[in-house]
Amino acid sequence: MQIQGYFDLKFEAVKDAFANLFEDPQERGAALCVQVGGETVVDIWAGTADKDGAQAWTSDTLVNLFSCTKAFAAVAALQLVGEGKLDLDVPVARWWPEFAAAGKERITLRQLLSHRAGLPALRELLPAEALYDWDAMTRALAAEQPWWTPGEGHGYAAITYGWLVGELLRRVDGRSPGESIIARTARPLELDFHIGLVDAEFPRVAHVSRAKGNFGDAAAQRLLKCMMTEPASMTTRAFANPPSIMTSTNKPEWRRMEQPAANGHGGARALAGFYARLLDGRLLEAELLNEMTREHSVGEDKTLLTRTRFGLGCMLDQPEVPNATYGVGPKAFGHPGAGGSIGFADPERELAFGFVTNTLGPYVLMDPRAQKLAGAVKDCLS
């Protein structure tokens, strides 16, 4: 497999580890970008972007980043906190009065961002098309009763996070949630990252598909079993209500919508650039970054049925948990996306890391491909 792009010779072992991914015949396309101290030391890509394997992955290929998007949304919300327009500990209902229904009158932005609000899913089954109807989804969430007492324990809001945080952005920032986030993060940093793609960008987007025959680790199998056998469970509802959540990735409607939990589109360079700018203070004041990366939730996740650890809109490292470590340093923070894409930072090494793929793996948290690459980076730095 021919590897395109640039790497500092000190990081040749990282390039080799990336090339090794393609020994798996199912691996289609991927990109990796690593910055250290704000300098790009690796920016490489390989493979194919389209469904038929005819279109080469290029330096500006975009791919659906799934939950990597959540950290961008959190930064936009935290910027509004810094501007005094939002508050982490004031009830959300101050800005969104309808949200106070059904026992949610005291839920705060801090609880939404740390997955402690009890709203990872909707009980009432919605039609597939509701996924693309912002007002229908936010109305349903405003009426929903929490699945547990808000603030007591946590459960990952895989997709509802986007409507919950996005609606606050919409109401407080006065623009659509995607526009708010892009104007506050990607545009000033000149990152090729989008929430709500225009049709003219579609030719650049990689077609995403699942690898076959790999059932993942124990956490992935537990989640799959729950979704196959307990259709009314909170976990199943979180990923399958509306039922179109899991099947829409390559659809034009999905690309066009603004769903800041799951449908950001970008590349490895955008992810690494975002985390590099978090580290150098250009996105958040130090006090707000400390708040974002401080432990807010840890332990058994009511949605994912595995151990998770969250700050505000970011996943924190769990060095002792094989499926939940970035594999670099214990202070690492960032966010994986479904199927393998990931962006993270390790402040101790001034490291920013972005990996993207269009070959979806089955893992719930960290994908072993990204972990191997991160391990190779760590070895080159030590």
In short:
This protein is of the alpha+beta class and 382 residues long. It is built from 13 helices and 14 strands.
Structure, explained:
With 382 residues, the chain is an alpha+beta fold. The protein has one domain: DD-peptidase/beta-lactamase superfamily (Beta-lactamase, 3-Layer(aba) Sandwich). The chain is built from 13 helices and 14 strands. The protein has helices at 12-21, 69-82, 109-113, 134-143, 160-173, 177-184, 186-189, 218-229, 234-240, 252-256, 268-279, 286-292, 368-381, and strands at 4-7, 29-36, 39-47, 63-64, 194-195, 209-210, 264-266, 297-300, 307-310, 315-316, 333-336, 342-346, 351-357, 359-360. Strands 1-3-2-13-12-11-10 form a 7-stranded antiparallel beta sheet, sandwiched between helices. It has a 3-stranded antiparallel beta sheet with strand order 4-7-5. Strand 2 and strand 3 (39-47) form a beta hairpin. Helix 1 (12-21) runs antiparallel to helix 13, helix 2 runs parallel beside helix 5 and helix 2 (69-82) crosses helix 6. The two termini are 28 Å apart. The model has no long low-confidence stretch (mean pLDDT 95).
Secondary structure blueprint with pairings:
Blueprint: E1 4-7, H1 12-21, E2 29-36, E3 39-47, E4 63-64, H2 69-82, H3 109-113, H4 134-143, H5 160-173, H6 177-184, H7 186-189, E5 194-195, E6 209-210, H8 218-229, H9 234-240, H10 252-256, E7 264-266, H11 268-279, H12 286-292, E8 297-300, E9 307-310, E10 315-316, E11 333-336, E12 342-346, E13 351-357, E14 359-360, H13 368-381
Parallel strand pairs: 6-14
Antiparallel strand pairs: 1-3, 2-3, 2-13, 4-7, 5-7, 8-9, 10-11, 11-12, 12-13
Helix pairs in contact: 1-13, 2-5, 2-6, 4-5, 5-6
Pfam families: Beta-lactamase
GO molecular function: serine-type D-Ala-D-Ala carboxypeptidase activity
Keywords: Carboxypeptidase, Hydrolase, Protease
